[in-house]
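[step 3/7] inverse_fold.run input=structure_tokens len=182
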């Protein structure tokens, strides 16, 4: 129970910190490149932001149908702690959930990361703040270069050939419209 309480505090704090850091970086990168704070997007593009946000929230809801937010936070905490301690990837510790290959995972290996990027793109379109576009790009880079690399090594260590076969069939971050895993 102590681990659960720690996870419910630490993981949101880290995520909030990343959001703040990426917002500041996005703001300064836009300024350094001479890109205005607002692009004055046409009304139709801004309205499309509502649709993109709806897609992101619907995708997030679909993810939560198969794994609760608390389960996601717990596994994230265990993985982060394992990474920081330099523990063997195969060590299960408190991570006991099965490999979930249903729902959105049939279309994309990392649906949560896809949904987060889509949500930032939706907010960018709707609100027309350039730093939100840069935040989406920074999160995409963070997920693909840092998080997914470690997470996939851990999943391969925990689930072996089953995960390897799944990874060969299903795209990493951009979903396939038709299910790739049955």
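[step 3/7] decode complete -> sequence:
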């Amino acid at each position: 129970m102590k681990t659960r309480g720690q996870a419910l505090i630490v993981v949101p704090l880290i995520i909030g910190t990343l959001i703040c850091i990426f917002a500041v970086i996005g703001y300064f990168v836009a300024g350094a490149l001479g890109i205005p704070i607002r692009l004055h997007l046409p009304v139709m593009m801004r309205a499309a932001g509502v649709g993109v946000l709806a897609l992101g929230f619907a995708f997030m809801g679909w993810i939560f149908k198969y794994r609760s937010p608390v389960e996601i936070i717990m596994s994230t905490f265990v993985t982060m702690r394992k990474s920081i301690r330099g523990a063997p990837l195969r060590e299960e510790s408190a991570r006991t959930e099965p490999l979930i290959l249903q729902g959105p995972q049939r279309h994309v290996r990392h649906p949560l990361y896809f949904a987060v990027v889509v949500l930032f793109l939706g907010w960018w379109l709707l609100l027309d703040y350039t730093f939100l576009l840069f935040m989406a790009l920074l999160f995409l880079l963070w997920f693909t270069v840092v998080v997914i690399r470690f997470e996939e090594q851990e999943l391969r260590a925990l689930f072996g050939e089953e995960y390897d076969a799944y990874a060969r069939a299903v795209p990493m971050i951009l979903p396939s419209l038709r299910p790739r895993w049955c």
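[step 4/7] annotate
The mean pLDDT is 92.
The chain has one domain: 2-169.
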